[in-house]
Write a structure and sequence with these properties.
Largest sheet: 11 strands, mixed
Shape: globular
CATH superfamily of the largest domain: Mur-like, catalytic domain
Number of domains: 3
Number of helices: 15
Number of strands: 26
Strand content: 15-25%
Helix content: 25-40%
CATH architecture of the largest domain: 3-Layer(aba) Sandwich
């Protein structure tokens, strides 16, 4: 049950955290709060309305009051609030997680909550963990675990496509509340640097946090001003967790290990360092599966072999963190093996092949230098002698370094790229493509600019004449494309790829060498 508290109780809690700076019409603070939201479209009678964001407009508050808001909370008093009681705080972002905790009655404390952080691999690792946990839960007759990711969200009540890596704090607490109300015991979630920087996950207690890697990304005026800001934001996760799992193969590993001491316990994993608590070795591809051995040093020690059926040698690193996390929960090794064997991640390393075997198209979400390096280098090893062709773009308004980093990585391993639109947002798509093309020329890779993603995928597939790997990256299973501030519906890369490979298979007139 949610907690029906008075406005006075909310005030006292904010005061205890040092966030309270003032009150308006305090004589009315005995009012009971039946709902909390920052979305004026959700307001109903008894709502405590949150005035948040740089783009907040006073008319939102006026509309909320008209629709039944009985109080508001903000960083300043608004004339539009009239005589409605208000709580004034120093930092609305830090206040929001506390409001969620109070209203939803600390639901995350009733869950086994696992967080995944890093520059790449968060989504795949989150889903690997879900498969492992769900295997364990199914064997014990319990409902599947919840998941909060950049792909989709499931909390026992809501199953929906996701549009952000880590939701705002109130949405997070609502998901936790739904999960607890539905009898869910475990939940896995991605934790973004933005969520950490802007305190969306403040106060959340993770039973286990897995830190995968760090590399320069998300550096822009709208995200992180520099790498130190990005790194220090990522490091905040350790202070929120009881058990930290750290991959020793990451950049800045000394800094990461030092920061990880903020957690109560640290477990290390590695594909390179045999001194790690969990060391992956003998990594190999056999048929369509990837096999690897794991030596565990932490008691009780073991030597076991695991199998992944999802392509990509680089995914062993993701699986290794999951193995360590699952063991912390006491999940048996046979459950971990079975879960990883079944594991897949929507829009991640989805392989589509033509009947003649010439087209091997991977749809993947890789979208930054680190994930490109892992993907392209892995494919180069797994498909010797094949042409490697990339289809990708770069987003607008953020992570500007990708515009030169991605074509550089593609040129290092590939033969050609098709540059297309990828959430251009505030920037003209043709200008982004022109910038990517400039760096492609400098890197010495053949390229074509085709703004429409479907048209780019179509041409890339229909032009195949010899064994080729197509790496269609950046969008995965997403069905929205951002232009300006609007998300327009679109077909997923996977959907396009299926259709055009079918067309390829049905086109015997194509002259193929």
């Amino acid at each position: 049950m949610v907690q029906i508290l008075t406005l006075d109780q909310y005030k006292d809690a904010l005061k205890a955290e040092g966030l309270l700076t003032g009150c308006v019409n305090e004589g009315e603070f005995s009012r009971k709060i039946s709902y909390v939201t920052y979305d004026s479209r959700e307001v109903k009678d008894g709502t405590l309305f949150i005035c948040k964001g740089a783009a907040f407009k006073p008319e939102y508050l006026k509309s909320a009051i008209t629709d039944g808001a009985c109080a508001y909370i903000s960083e300043k008093e608004y004339e539009e609030g009239g005589d409605v009681p208000a709580i004034i705080v120093s930092d609305i972002r830090k206040a929001m997680p506390l409001l969620g905790d109070l209203f939803y009655d600390y639901p995350q404390k009733k869950l086994n909550l696992t967080g995944f952080g890093g520059t790449k691999g968060k989504s795949t690792s989150t889903y690997y963990m879900k498969y492992v946990v769900d295997e364990y839960l199914e064997r014990n007759g319990k409902p599947e675990s919840g998941v909060l990711s950049s792909i989709d969200n499931y909390d026992g009540v809501i199953r929906e496509e996701s549009h952000i890596t880590t939701a705002e704090s109130l949405e997070l607490h609502r998901h936790f509340y739904n999960a607890v109300s539905s009898g869910i015991d475990f939940m896995e979630m991605e934790v973004s640097s933005q969520a950490l920087k802007y305190d969306r996950v403040m106060g959340i207690d993770y039973n286990v946090s897995v830190f995968l890697n760090i590399s320069e990304d998300h550096i822009s005026p709208n995200e992180h001003k520099d790498f130190e800001d990005y790194l220090s934001s990522k490091m905040k996760m350790f202070a929120l967790t009881e058990h930290a799992v750290v991959c020793l193969d990451t950049d800045c590993v000394e800094r990461v290990l030092e920061e990880a001491k903020a957690a109560g316990d640290v477990t290390t994993v590695s594909c390179k360092n045999p001194e790690a608590d969990y060391y992956a070795h003998d990594i190999r591809k056999e048929g369509s599966s990837i096999f690897f051995g794991v030596t565990k040093k932490k008691a009780p020690a073991f030597e076991e072999e695991f199998e992944l059926t999802m392509p990509g040698l680089f995914n062993v690193e993701n699986a290794l963190g999951v193995i360590a996390a699952a063991e912390i929960y006491g999940i048996p090794v046979d459950c971990i093996k079975a879960g990883l064997r079944k594991a897949k991640s929507p829009g991640r390393m989805e392989l589509f092949k033509s009947d003649d075997g010439l087209v091997n198209a991977f749809v993947d979400y890789a979208h930054n230098k680190l994930s490109f390096e892992a993907l392209y280098s892995s494919v180069k090893k797994e498909f010797p002698g094949y042409r490697i062709v990339g289809i990708f773009g770069c987003p607008g308004g953020k992570a500007y370094q990708r515009r030169y980093e991605l074509p550089q990585v593609a040129a290092k391993y590939g033969d050609k790229i098709y540059i297309c639109a990828e959430d251009p947002g505030p920037d003209p798509a043709d200008e982004i493509s022109a910038e990517v093309a400039k760096y492609a020329r400098e890197a010495g890779i053949d390229y074509e600019e085709i703004e429409d993603r479907g048209a780019a995928i179509h041409k890339a597939i229909l032009e195949v004449r010899k064994p080729t790997v197509l790496l269609i990256t950046g969008k995965g299973e997403e069905t929205r494309q951002k232009y300006g501030t609007v998300y327009a519906p679109c077909r997923s890369d996977a959907d396009y790829t299926k259709e055009f490979i079918k067309e390829y298979n049905e086109s015997p007139h194509l002259a193929r060498a």
